[in-house]
Design a protein that fits this description.
3 helices; about 25% helix
Length: about 150
């Protein structure tokens, strides 16, 4: 077979092959209280410095730290990945009186076509494990109701 025929055959076969579409995913943003995960990893001194600095400068001061986590997913075949898991402590003093918020922010990617999935997340710093039940069909419905 000549090179031209082999090339033509490869082009013809690749045109017949179905295109592989990447699976659509949903990005979920969840926020938890600090107590749910065993407190914050920031020292009292670091939190106090953030509060004082925000008050002095009348601005937002934020502490943020990535948290190591492990995930166990049931069923295991479902595409679910943790994009970010961070602890945060924030002081907003732009309006004079400080507004303090703290907790954990979890960002997940979940396949839209996935069945309901149960995920067990473990904060490796504290050893605390929490379970989440995620149903992509219900999440998509809620998002369409609240654009």
């Amino acid at each position: 077979m000549t090179t031209a025929r082999v090339l033509w055959l490869l082009i013809a076969l690749s045109a017949c092959a179905p295109a592989v579409q990447p699976e659509a995913v949903q990005v979920l943003h969840l926020t938890f209280s600090a107590d749910a995960w065993g407190g914050l990893p920031f020292t009292a001194e670091a939190r106090q410095r953030a509060l004082v600095q925000a008050l002095l400068d009348r601005r937002v001061e934020r502490l943020e730290q990535a948290v190591a986590t492990t995930v166990d997913i049931q069923p295991a075949s479902v595409l679910l990945s943790v994009q970010r898991f961070t602890a945060f402590f924030e002081v907003d003093a732009r309006g004079g009186l400080p507004i303090v918020s703290s907790g954990y922010h979890l960002e997940l990617q979940l396949a839209q076509s996935a069945p309901a999935v149960y995920a067990r997340l473990t904060n490796r710093a504290t050893g605390i494990t929490r379970g989440l039940r995620l149903d992509p069909a219900r999440l998509a419905l809620r998002q369409s109701e609240n654009p």
